[in-house]
Amino acid sequence: MIDPRADYLEVNRRWWDEAARLHVDTELYPLAEIVAGLDPRRPFEDEEFGEVDGLDLLHLQCHLGTDTLGWARRGARVTGYDLSGESLRVARELFARSGVPGNFVEGPVTEAVERLGEESFDVIYTGIGALNWLADLTEWAKVVWSLLRPGGRLYLVEFHPLLGVLREEEPVLEPSADYFYDPAGLVSSDPGDYAAFGAVREHSTAVEWQHHLGAVIQSLLRVGLRLEYFAEHDGMSFAPWPEMERLEGQLRWRLGEGRPRLPLEYSLIAHRP
Ligand SMILES: C[S@@+](CC[C@H](N)C(=O)[O-])C[C@H]1O[C@@H](n2cnc3c(N)ncnc32)[C@H](O)[C@@H]1O
Asked: How far apart are the first and last CA of the chain?
């Protein structure tokens, strides 16, 4: 019998390989629309991060490569890296259909330095449901440091950890789960999927970790990265509650009229001196 915590990489790889098959052409991953030109990225990203034309960009935990494609269309030379081979198969196909070059490498974040060989990057982009799959953020920050060139920048755009203590049914504070990081992680076995509504999974077990904001920032500072930008956002690239409003022309939702505004995503930029 597989022990989810001891074998979390294998458990999560199966979960994500199945997710990749389920996610193709869902509302969150409308691949045909993206091929036709829909921008999957968040509009504030250009404003916050600036131009990437001609830069070498690594997208850690790239899933189906949708955001990766958004960066490539802005002129970055992109490499997508992910644990799930099935996700990368879809990502390669998405790039081929879009006529955009991209390189994809499979493996866990903890092995990215070895698997990417001698490569280093001007930009590392990651987030939108990425960090919660990692057990140890200091280990992650060391990988980011090693893969960045001196002067290179990390751009993290991530779901706000406040979401971990909001009720599942509606955006009401119900702190029955820890806000703070617990190294033991959380094992779940929901047979559903966040993007493929109505799907019943064969692989339902997943292992995740809640990383509070202080833990994220401390992990970066601990390895010597310098924080240069931090922001919180009241919209998000996912609609966990039914009454959320989709922002026009975007893959992004906001709490409806009359609801208090809450921080649903955050973004930060840190550089390697
Ligand atoms: C929610 S997706 C990332 C967000 C992405 N922007 C998207 O399209 O939604 C999470 C990705 O992390 C990958 N992943 C999970 N654990 C990982 C690990 N330990 N190392 C590398 N990738 C991992 C999964 O395979 C999945 O593709």
From this structure: 46
C-alpha angle 143-67-12 in degrees, rounded to nearest 5: 55
How many domains in the chain? 1
Compute the distance from residue 257 Cα to the ligand 1 centre, in Å. 32
158 pocket-lining for ligand 1 (C-beta < 6 Å)? no
**Would 3 be classed as within a structural domain?**
no
In this structure, is residue 33 part of a structural domain?
A: yes
The DSSP result for 51-62, as a single string, is --TT-EEEEET-
CA distance 108 to 174: 33
Q: Give per-residue pLDDT as tens, 31-66.
A: 999 999 999 999 999 999 999 999 999 999 999 999
Of 73-82, 137-146, 239-248, which gets the smallest average pLDDT? Answer: 239-248
Tens digits of residue pLDDT in 199-220: 999 999 999 999 999 999 999 9
- Residue 217: give the domain boundaries: 8-40+51-271
39 pocket-lining for ligand 1 (C-beta < 6 Å): no
CATH number of the structural domain spanning residue 168: 3.40.50.150
Domain-located, residue 2: no
Among 59, 62, 133, say which to mutate for ligand 1: greatest number of ligand atoms within 8 Å of CB: 133
Say which DSSP state 136 is in.
-
